[in-house]
Amino acid sequence: MRAERLIAAGAELGEGPVWRAESGEIVWVDILRGEIHATAFDGSSRLVRQHAMPVGAVALTTTGDILASTPIGLVDEVGAVRSPLAQAALDVRANDGKPDPAGRFVGGTMTVGDARAGAGALWSMDGGEPIALVESATIANGIAWSAEHSTMYWIDTPTGHIDAFDYDLETGRVGGRRPHVVIDEAWGSPDGMCIDDEDRLWIAFWGGSAVRCLDGTDCVEMIELPTPLVTCPTFAGPDLDHLVITTASIDVPADSPGAGDVYIVTPGCTGPAPNRLGPWAG
Which residues of the chain have pLDDT under 50? Predict the structure, then answer.
């Protein structure tokens, strides 16, 4: 399959697309610019808001409000902190994350610029004191939960594999970490990720110009993109039968076509609706 360009966004570091049914738009971020954008299927797009700090991801509340994952925690449209995440290091920023099936936000951190080994983490937030699920990470990235919610899949990009964890939905705690898939280096570096209704993982490959679908450990589908830095896919649309994919232009030659744009494809399957934050988020 080959993805088509939905919008010529020219994002520096496009990431974290989420389907927002209320407005019929895909909400996504340009991380380093602190921007939140919303793009419709007709190709129209708008800047929702801009924060004065990097925005690693967005999450929707049950009422459709958009919260941004930042170095200080989840913040709303006026910058008020709904769930704190106090970081000791000033050079740490938020990266990929999303709500779990119970309404907590699970998101990662990493250092700015150099992605210092072990300086990031994976956090769980529900309005109170954040809990570190993984205390040492380098580029905390894609995350997904199995249909029965008992398994969490997660990517720390430099490890070159997708890890699986036992997930306790009642407490939000993890255990039993183990490699689920070891990635072929020729594919690129695993980045953002989503899961379909058949429990197959769809993974974006930074440096790989593709999104690949893994059924268990087997690659069963590949979506080609015309630009190398592919960052994150998500299922979108009223029937959740489209895959929308963000990309980046950072460090890509200025004359490289399609870098930083948002793409779309019909993969022949559907995905679950995005999880939403619980009532604690307002």
Answer: none
β-bridge mates for residue 263, sequence order: 5, 245
Maximum distance among all alpha carbons in the chain?
A: 50
Location of structure tokens 């995005």 = 274
Residue pair 61/276 in contact (Cβ under 8 Å)? The answer is yes
- Per-residue tokens: 139: 């580029």
Instruction: Report the C-alpha gap between 124 and 74 in whole angstroms.
Output: 11
Q: Where are the domains of the chain?
A: 4-281
Return the pLDDT at 89: 66
Q: Tell me the DSSP string of 70-134.
A: ETTEEE-TT--EEEE---S-TTEEEEEEEE-TTS-EEEEEEETTT--TT-EEEEEESSSS-EEEE
Q: 137 and 108 in contact (C-beta within 8 Å)?
A: yes
191 flagged as catalytic: yes
Assigned architecture for domain 4-281: 6 Propeller (2.120)
Pairwise CA distance, residues 183 & 18, whole Å: 25
Residue 273 and residue 122: Cα distance in Å, rounded?
A: 23
Rounded to whole angstroms, the Cα distance separating 240 from 4 reads 17
Pick the catalytic residue: 96, 126, 156, 191? 191
What SS3 state is found at 279?
A: helix
Check residue 87 and give its pLDDT.
65
